[in-house]
Amino acid sequence: MNVFDKLKNEDWIDILREQPQLADKCDKWRKFNGEDWSFLLREQPQFADKCDWSKLDGNAWKWLLQEQPQFADKCNKWGEFDAGDWSFLLREQPQLADKCNKWRKFDSVDWSHLLCEQPQFADKCDEWDKFDAVDWRELLREQPQFADKCDEWDEFDAKDWSRLLHKQPQFADKCNKWRKFDNKTWNGLLQEQPQFADKCNKWRKFKTEDWIYLLIEQPQFADKCDKWDDFDGYDWSRLLREQPQFADKCDKWRKFDIYRWHKLLQEQPQFADKCDKWDEFSGFFWREILREQPQFADKCDEWDEFDAVNWRELLREQPQFADKCDKWGEFDAEDWSRLLYEQPQFADKCDKWGEFDAEDWSFLLREQPQFADKCNKWRKFNGGDWSCLLYKQPQFADKCDWEKLYRRALRELLQKHPEFAETVTHISVSDGSNAK
């Protein structure tokens, strides 16, 4: 059976959206439903002459016209559009407004959403008095010029005000809920709009975590912070990673555990002289530090404690430490495939080629195809192995047992590499009934 017979409607839609030149291979045109056509034509409108327009319902038309309004003259489902559909469509295609006969059905949410994008329709709106605080909040965030129509200012709660002022701080003089803001609300607002600091009456309510988040974004508020003594090692490590200038306020260096130190030193190595935990770092922590800050190698006396995984991960980022590694013999096939993927120059040290399984080979060859002559597991590759490899390295197609590819894998490969179409035309493959 032809491989293309295994492909379902949704497979062809995905393929043709990416690779329209494969249209002549598709024999499912008559089986496409309205949703299929809508999805395909949004990306590839040149297939319109193949479309049975009668299959599209109102919802399919809504989505299609949002992207391809030139098909409006073919639509005979306008009557199926409700007010929400029109609000959605007109946000992107306002030129279709003359076809809308549902203006009086728009509720306040429909109007708020539409006017956020297309304020020129304001003269058609007769629901201004129905807008609630949320409708106004969302509209004024995008279209502040409608403020003179708003008579719901007193109904805004602290959340409404915070969200509006984040984007439109000029409305601050209308806000009468400042005292209702809690510490979380203030923290979020001040990170974006620090000019409102003089209105904040919750400074003493800020917790240490509130201060960390705020000072990271707005360090100028340091003089208002009264929680410096309460910061623990976690707080200081988090803050100093982003704002190292506060180091002179820190008196908790000895409270840092090895986890906090390794996180801090990865980003701010200048604090190395304050660290008193060098002797406590295990192989994992050294690996993580040296991956980012190799200059600390002279402080490491745990090289013998590195296991194969630690060496693998370190050498992937910092191959200059290879001369310190004495665990080459402990690397298994997976370790080697992962290391050589990043650092192929170590191939001469590998003594596990014969132990690579198909997954190891598929992974390595994706990035380092020059090792193909060492691979003796081609026949062991499953559909997933082939799919992942061919996606990045199509030159191996002649080695592929195409019958192992399930439907989804074939679809994804054809989307990326349409040149495979001729190769697989007369090949039968698994239908991948268990593959979603």
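^ that was protein a. below is b, sequence first then the tokens
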Amino acid sequence: MDKSRNRYGQIRKGKQLKLSELKESTEINITFRLNVREFSFRVKVLAVMGNELITTPIRFKEGVLVFDTKEVILSVWATDESGRSIVWKEVKCDKITHEGRLAYRISSKNEGDYWNRRGAFRVPVNLQGVAQVGFNRKADSVVLKDLSALGYAFTMKGKVEDCIGKPVRLIFDDTKLKTHLTLLGTVVRIDPQANDQYLLGCKLIKENALVSKYVAERQR
């Protein structure tokens, strides 16, 4: 077993990392900003060659997405075993052929840094809600534990070991503050709890002004 990875396929917590220190089969996110919009796609590391990663490509319509790094700002994200995000900036991504198939060759001169989340104050919530994890699973009753402008965490029962990277739609009501919110995120962390419960940490897909307003109200 590859000791650099835990049961959820995430890289182990450590100091700054080079892209080349990631392992085969690690899932990473390629994030890019075009004009004022930000996009993120998950790919898998196929091979590590020197200081470069070979990954699966992002398929778009009938082809593969190609990046012009002069116009598009690229970064690569991964998570360590505690769910903390690591980001590599100023990434170069070229389309190549690897073992007869289209792939990406990714490189960066920079080492990965842990993403600084100190600006996102996390408030405890502890309210009932319903959440759908992935596209092929029914909605489950959950407890929203905490929330910030960047992400949220909730507990639920059931098999969730394979949910890293999957989308989550969570809906809850706060009758005291007369608030109804829908949270759209991606699972980045799973922690087993007692009584067959799991804590799922999620990153919001995009910033939501209503979430920021609610967090501010909870702090009062």
